[in-house]
């Protein structure tokens, strides 16, 4: 399972709710020992500066501790951008900036819950 961390990437209430629900269900209701094959990874929320330095965050992310690191290829990054552009109602002015500068379209670091 992959979800957001407690910071919800941008503090978005829905993202935080997903993390809270997954954490509650995994830790309280459906506790599964790690050896059983079920893992939960949470996407690391980074500070504002790192969030918008695009590919420059690859080196920083590589040097910092994490359980998984995904570095997208140029083709994968373009595919993600095309997907975002398909949702015109969601593509507000600040998301245009996101498409240009966000590290999440290039690199994602995750931690085990």
TrEMBL record:
Top-level EC class: hydrolase
GO terms for biological process, alphabetical: GPI anchor biosynthetic process
GO molecular function: N-acetylglucosaminylphosphatidylinositol deacetylase activity
GO CC field: endoplasmic reticulum; membrane
Source species, domain of life: Eukaryota
Alphabetized SUPFAM superfamilies for the sequence: LmbE-like (SSF102588)
EC identifiers of the protein: 3.5.1.89
InterPro entries assigned to the protein according to its UniProt record, in alphabetical order: GlcNAc_PI_deacetylase-related (IPR003737), LmbE-like_dom_sf (IPR024078)
UniProt similarity note: Belongs to the PIGL family.
PANTHER family recorded: N-ACETYLGLUCOSAMINYL-PHOSPHATIDYLINOSITOL DE-N-ACETYLASE (PTHR12993:SF11), N-ACETYLGLUCOSAMINYL-PHOSPHATIDYLINOSITOL DE-N-ACETYLASE-RELATED (PTHR12993)
Name of the featured protein: N-acetylglucosaminylphosphatidylinositol deacetylase
Annotated organism of origin: Anthoscopus minutus
Lineage: Eukaryota, Metazoa, Chordata, Craniata, Vertebrata
Gene: Pigl
